[in-house]
Amino acid sequence: MKINDYRRAMDRIVPDTALKERIMNQQNTKKKHIPTRRVFTVALAAVLSVTCLTAAAFAASPELRAAVLSFFRMEEREQVPSGSGASSQPDISQAEIGALVKAQYIKMDSYRYGFSNGLLTDLTWSDDWKTLQDAKFWEPRDGELVPVEVDMHTSKVDITFRDLHYQGEFYWYVRDGQLDYFSGDHRTWDEDGEREWDWNLSPIPGRNDALLLRLSTGRQIEYTEYPFLYHLDTGEAEDILAGTGADRLEYAYGCEWSENMRRAIILTGNQLDGQLTWFCDLDTKTLVRVDELADIDVYTAAFADDDTLILYSTSRDEEGMLQDVSFYAYDIPTGRMTKTLEKAPYYRDQDEHPSGVMTYGSRCVHISETGQVQVVDLKTGGRTLLGGFTFQKGDDFMLNPSGTKLLYFARDTQSEGLGISQIGVADLEKGVFFAFDREGYENLHEGGIGWDDDSTVSIRASTLDNKTQYLLLYQF
Predict the structure, then answer these.
(1) Comparison of pLDDT for 224 and 38, the residue scoring more
(2) pTM of the model
């Protein structure tokens, strides 16, 4: 689970830091819901932060640290579709934008359609939303929706933990080496209807043989969860943290894993003063508070790689709002710590002229008061300048899952929904940064934007009368 920078978005919209951290930290992993409840990328405030969170680290190199990406705006504009009258089956059209971006526009008549693992999905659930009765899949390919058959499997959850019985089914398949899964509503209530518990799944990057099974109780500031490793071949739920003492932590509500799954960062607490960040080592069976690893006040932490933590040290004002943040690279085997960025203001887009850092696990985007933008490697301190580009209020960024591309988009705050007036990508490997303007976006209500994979960006939208739904796909 990626747990760091949703705080940036939450700081924008609510003053109660403790509450917003607990609610938004519950899940920003890939939770599969019933189609009508499934969040495509998330609501406006969350999508501008949660979907972009990633702890993936770039490979440090002199070329990256010295890179300057020159920004250029494509002359060709995108003409955003806005027609109503969708048929009973999804329709698709396509366009090329400046010979650099391939766009596909899927028009639908219902919210029931989803998009996952590169496929358009149509799932039919039982009345109680627990059993998947039918599933259809299409692959958007060269302006056509090509029907696809998948080898769907059914697995069961049946586990008692802390005297609570968690049970239910979920569905999964592997296609082209990629795992995808779906689950319905598994909430259970006690006889008095006062206590609830639930389970959810999260993907493990790079693996298609297992999922993280998160057993939870409560909601909002009372939410707590504990992870198990679910093995798809055997149906076994393994207590991966057994013997570390993590099961004794109170109000644990977020867990981020190293790539090899041998170390974890765990967040606990049900109030601001009680929030703690813990470091858990599965090999040594140790559990320690992160601020005890180093002689600094640690707000939270992220993995840069299996052996490196990025420590966040912050200051707050009298109302508890984040003011600035310093970053340290902590080498786990040796305990050596290096400061890589000192007292950078924390970004808030409600400011009249926003500046500061947007954080992405082991990376951050640093925006100066004059609008100059740099991508900072928080492990090495290396910087990449986005040359020829000036940040404006309403702009935002998202990092792709592997950390190789930075999505840029500009929002028209006068439009309904996101109102995305410009989209671009900074390719940090190829050293290019381009963007294009969009026409007709004001005729749609765009509710979410995010990366679907390392090269595909999608926008979920509807016509203003809400009768027609759109899924807009962009290949970069």
Answers:
(1) 224
(2) 0.83
